[in-house]
Amino acid sequence: MGDRSNGEVLMLEAPPSYGRASSSSDAEIIDALPYIDDDYGDPRVKLEVDRLVEDEMRRSSKKPADFLKDFPPLPTFNFEGYPMIAREYERVRAGRPPVSLDRSRYELEIPPANKRNDETAWRQALQRAQRLLQYQVMRMENLELLLKYGPDAWKQHNQRLEVYLSRIIAFS
């Protein structure tokens, strides 16, 4: 954010005519706060931003609930044919937290205490450990393949996109 040696928050003032509604002389103009980088974690910057917000709200004749009423309503989304996106959209709108991934299949567990002497339980634990090991081996092989062939594959993909673009430009 520029020179920080004096600890002040820097902002630009807009000219008085900026943003004035020409159709209505009594329209209230709400100026945005200055752009703040990641300095909001600094207590001095946070205090200054909070002060700016309070000053803006004090000067305003609008109530906080009225700030968005002048904007057009949000469009309705049609997720027909996309049920997963529709479910996720509804989850976010309802304010529910995301479903966490079940990572239990990646955990290596020994049999519970009451089955420690059970040979079948130990065989199942061994099979699970072997599956996890094979999964890790495949992941390492895939990473090695990506390191070896990935850059060339991306170059070929980009070349194909450039050919498609040139054909589209030629036809238009």
Question: How would you sum up this structure, described in words?
Answer:
The chain has helices at 43-59, 83-94, 119-171. With 172 residues, the chain is an all-alpha fold. The longest helix has 53 residues, at 119-171. The protein is extended, with a radius of gyration of 29 Å. Residues 1-5 and 18-25 have low confidence and may be disordered.
Kindly state the percentage of residues in helix: 40-55%
According to DSSP, the number of beta strands is 0
Listing every helix as H and every strand as E from the N terminus to the C terminus, the arrangement reads: HHH
Rg from Cα: 29 Å
Structural class: mainly alpha
- Globally, the shape reads extended
Quote the beta fraction: under 5%
Helical stretch tally: 3
Mean pLDDT: 81
Low-confidence stretches: 1-5, 18-25
* Terminus-to-terminus distance: 44 Å
Q: Main beta sheet: strand number and arrangement?
A: none
Provide a short characterization of the protein structure:
With 172 residues, the protein is mainly alpha-helical.
Features:
172 residues; mainly alpha; disordered N terminus
Give the topology, please.
Blueprint: H1 43-59, H2 83-94, H3 119-171
